[in-house]
């Protein structure tokens, strides 16, 4: 029997289908030399209706008789390849936005897509067609962060449509690659559209958005990623717009996406969003009606179990098979353009080997991104950078050594994460003494990771941490592969091996230590596994205190569940603890976090005692992905369902800052969070404030370098920091009135675009050409920026434009990040095209209008400072622009 080269290729990459099924004369869809459209049409024509529908779900079934392998469309890459083992973890998206650096975003996406290809190739070689190992990535999130209460705002590029569009275009272009025939991967801008909370209402709420706000705020970034970056996929949202659910909304999916923007790719639903069409929105009477409405509107694949109903719907003449064909052809066009049906040697990206995942060079890029994301908010006393030999540095706060707060959400697994405490200890080693205390919880109602100060590996030891013994068996049998001291139990091992020499699916660990609480009383402890979806089997956890078993539990435990236990401590009393953890049979699971509910007063008193020993106090406060995020079961003061009801720093952390300040030691506040915080007390009392976001795997290193001056901070806020929510509209009100820097009329703590430096910059020679322009533009703007300080630094040059008319708003229309040595100058050029110059009219139409325009160029929004220059020009004529 003769085996064709294509069949050999299928076998080589692990499709695992019978040779007989494909041992036939070459069919058109198997011929790489034919046009993609012809190949797709041929393949789909050979499928049964049931086979076609089986391809329209996120986990597409294999069709062995046609040589079609199983494929899962769901993969994540918000700031690194997520949920598929070790990967380079960049700062959370809001932190990347704070870099204001399109070149850096482009480089980040290039690395992410390279690692995606490396993981995909390795998975296929091992016959793995599972979720999170595909080449279609549901990123970036380019919704507008219109309200600081939204928990998922951390996943976005901030509140401004222009900044979001420029960063989104850079990300999508680089992810998809530049090969004329093949995609490197496919990017999926989401969630289309008008989607930004509340999380608790997202499955059923409707937004009656004005035509003005729709075109001015909610659609520009989506338009840019489709028309400029040519994203080949887009995700529709949960909510409804103007009465029609987003995944069944013809205004969005047809009038704008397909017709106005000429989108040629495929649309995927958010997970369960098609079901929401009937269950949440009551737009259809049942799941079949919801599925039919979604496909007719243009939703080609669903994340969820809804579309199998389409088979009967076709038979009942509720939808035609031709409409099914249209969706399936879009999906297979994507797969063909990813090279999934061609010989590997003809697909350039298939040459990327697994050795290109999680490399040292990629780690350097993650460090650069973390460095560039940090925003200096206050430094009035010039306490920063710290002196090279500061003496004793106190590192205090719930975010000082919290893994989740460098990871963010939708994250990959960092192989060597650097939390702030470790970064500071490493950087100041041999120069300063570093002392540490946890200080407080994030909120008094929720547990947090047990800090290293509670543990000693053996009785009488001054070393902190637990003795960890790592076994290659699932029952602690055999000789440990590795024995080491772990600072605490805060590990993320999703689809990853804990240490070299262990499988990611079979291992066990035994930790032993003496534990001592900060004060006398009863303390509650518990265990939480790493966030994991989908997970079906349980890890096992057993705990012994003074040789008495107190826990025999498993996955999904926490301090209030079966994995919890309490220990009574007398003053200065220690207890022996042994923790046995076993993981087997799950590729996606793995990881453990030991939490506690400490006494707030005792923890704060301990922190004050540590601060009194120090020459400077570094307070790491803020939020955590355990508090803000996607549809979370969190309902405590200030937080509800992943969103926030109050943007103030939680009370227990404010009390910690006040107590630390009362010691009289200089107080530097480092914020770690995914959304704006009302830090009015810190603004008034702290010596300095840094905003570090959720900074990724090298976050601790970047923070330490910034505190020491090795890195000169130059990040700029991509969101407005408000003093409270009192002057903001209701969270569920989607009108942009009195929201974001463009429309807010009240006092702000720190404005959009704000950020300080360790050096100073000056501006001169603003040139605008022509000063009398035509409606079709362009208008050229140039300015000279100089580093007038004593150290090298980056400046973010920002251009804001105000169109004529009483209702016109000031809006960002250009930005460039430039690096300058002391005394150096650079000319920065901008070209404003017709879309930059246009404004949206009340009816939603966009046009360049005649009149006198005002622009400002500088390192911030115009605020009357000398480093912001203003000028003007006039436009003659009118030009109406397409949607």
Describe this structure as you would to a colleague.
With 883 residues, this protein is an alpha+beta fold. Among the domains are: 153 residues, Jelly Rolls (Sandwich); 123 residues, Immunoglobulins (Immunoglobulin-like, Sandwich). Helix content is 25%, strand content 24%. It has 23 helices and 41 strands. Strands 14, 15, 16, 18, 20, 21 and 23 form a seven-stranded antiparallel β-sheet that branches. A six-stranded mixed β-sheet has the order 10-30-29-25-11-12, sandwiched between helices. Strands 13, 17, 19, 22 and 24 form a five-stranded antiparallel β-sheet that branches. Helix 6 packs antiparallel against helix 15, helix 11 packs across helix 12 and helix 15 packs across helix 21. The longest helix has 24 residues. It is globular. The chain starts with a helix and ends with a strand. The N terminus is likely disordered. GO terms for molecular function: alpha-L-arabinofuranosidase activity; xylan 1,4-beta-xylosidase activity. It comes from Acidisarcina polymorpha. This is Beta-glucosidase. Belongs to the glycosyl hydrolase 3 family. Keywords: Hydrolase, Signal.
Fold blueprint:
Blueprint lengths: L4 H8 L6 H4 L13 H10 L3 H6 L4 E2 L10 E2 L20 H6 L3 H24 L10 E2 L23 H16 L9 E2 L18 E2 L3 H8 L1 H8 L5 E4 L3 E2 L2 E2 L4 H11 L5 E4 L3 H7 L7 H11 L12 H6 L5 H17 L22 H14 L1 E4 L13 E5 L7 H4 L12 H9 L4 E5 L10 E2 L5 E2 L9 E6 L10 E5 L3 E3 L13 E11 L4 E9 L10 E6 L2 E7 L10 E5 L4 E11 L6 E7 L2 H13 L3 E7 L12 E2 L2 E2 L2 E2 L6 H11 L5 E6 L7 H6 L2 E4 L7 H10 L31 H4 L17 E9 L2 E3 L4 E9 L5 E10 L7 E11 L4 E8 L1 H4 L1 E2 L5 E3 L2 E8 L9 E9 L2 E3 L2
Helix pairs in contact: 3-14, 6-7, 6-15, 7-9, 11-12, 15-21, 17-21, 18-19
Family: Belongs to the glycosyl hydrolase 3 family.
GO molecular function: alpha-L-arabinofuranosidase activity; xylan 1,4-beta-xylosidase activity
Protein name: Beta-glucosidase
